[in-house]
Amino acid sequence: MKIMYYLVVFYTMFFMYSCSNDDTESITPTITVTDIERYSVVINGAITMNDNTEVDECGIYWSQTNEKPTDMDKRVIAEQTNGKFQVKLTNLQGGTTYYVRAYAKNRTVMDIGETIQFTTTKGVPDIKATLLSLGTDCRVKIDIGGGDVKEVGYCRILATDYNKNVIPNIKNCEDKIIIDHYSSSFTFSLSGTYPNNYYACIYMITSEGIGYSERIYYHIPLR
Q: Could you tell me the pTM of the whole model?
């Protein structure tokens, strides 16, 4: 009888243990990358989970420098439906490599997926230039576009009635001034050969081509 009793207890405990293992919550997030453009990309996510598992939060971690992004990097929380979600990243830089991982969690479990790497498409430099106040200081922001930089500068012409519809470029400008110190965001002072009104366009030449800013009007006063 004792042997029979112990056998019953053993198989009962084994059955309960097996059932508890089957009920263990499991969340496995994965992603694919589509629609890669210069400034944006679409991340499609899928979450594999047990029938008894609910997802409280899901999304992605992403980074330009960290090959295994975490919650210490950039995060986008997504809305999931039936284990599917989608995230669109915007305001990216051209010709740049990024790293992204999906995550999903609830009150008891959390999982982070494998890293997916993608590189945005290249292009000519995209330049935004803004004149500060009414002076000659100019703030410049450049998305290089993934090419190798060969030259940075600005093209300058006199702001006369004759030139009122002319957009300065390296072929038609009266003066081409090289900018030696630059970055993706910098400020410098525009100049003129003598006191007058000028039009100028900032330019950058890379292996992908040449990019220009919009035309800037500025004034060099008498000293």
A: 0.80
